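Hey, resending since the last one bounced:
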Amino acid sequence: METNEKYGLDPQYPIMLRSVGESHSYMMSLLCSDGFNIVFHRLGSKSGIHAKPMDTYEVMTADFKRRVIYVYCYAAESHWRPPMGFLFDPLATFGYKVEQSSRFLDDIHEGAEGFYLGKFLSQNIGAFGRVSNFPTYLIEQAIEEGKCEDFRTDGVYERLLKA
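The structure tokens again:
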């Protein structure tokens, strides 16, 4: 298993998974290191050091930072390990499908101060295809579908638009 600090964050060290379906579960289970949910979309596939292409995902964390994560979906063995700066929802590590964040994270979120996007997300918001106007489009769609608290009158939304 990879022990490199660049695991998942460098195309030379992609996250190793066995299938596309497993990569979807992986991304829906991934959280910021502070326990907040993420917003993501798949940028596409690119060639890498392996025989088949790897997927690249753009992720926005709760503090509005953007990261790119590399996932290889054709590995012989899966290495479910979060990249540096991320963790998994505790329920996901026990094999539960994560459709809403685990209640284990409530205490982490309770003391959060500042303009954090994650305070308004009760689940990861993502797309497995490229999204124009990322992440604004996904957030607005989630608000309309009731998957995200409507915070458009809050200062957090203005920060989102600038990110």
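The CA atoms of residues 29 and 92 lie 6 Å apart.

Sorry for the duplicate.
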